[in-house]
């Protein structure tokens, strides 16, 4: 089944503008794969550690963490997490130094069967301006 998620940028070192995107993906998508999907949607390099966590707020001390160290990102599917209990929310933290933090919510749209000819995952829509991971970085720069 296909589910729809809303991904909202909360903050990050260079987060200057609001951004959110709606994604359709298979509910058996692992958190590791979701990391890759979000990273590609916002055009971030895959050069930093990341984690997902469930908490009341992004700064709550009481968190259920899914990361590379405990390997839960490889076995936990997005469909297994929802609905979240006790007003908890799902967060995605990318790059512990720059603290790119996104909130991930399942929309009210009911899960549906994949549509023939449609490639999933897919970005349905986005609002705002995508964050820039390395503003001012010149990709053409070479050492002299």
Automatic annotation (TrEMBL):
SUPFAM superfamilies: MM3350-like (SSF159941). Residues 4-132 form the Plasmid pRiA4b Orf3-like domain. PANTHER family: LEXA REPRESSOR-RELATED, TNPR PROTEIN. InterPro entries: MM3350-like_sf, Plasmid_pRiA4b_Orf3-like. This is Plasmid pRiA4b Orf3-like domain-containing protein. Transmembrane segments: none annotated. It comes from the Bacteria. It comes from Zobellella endophytica.
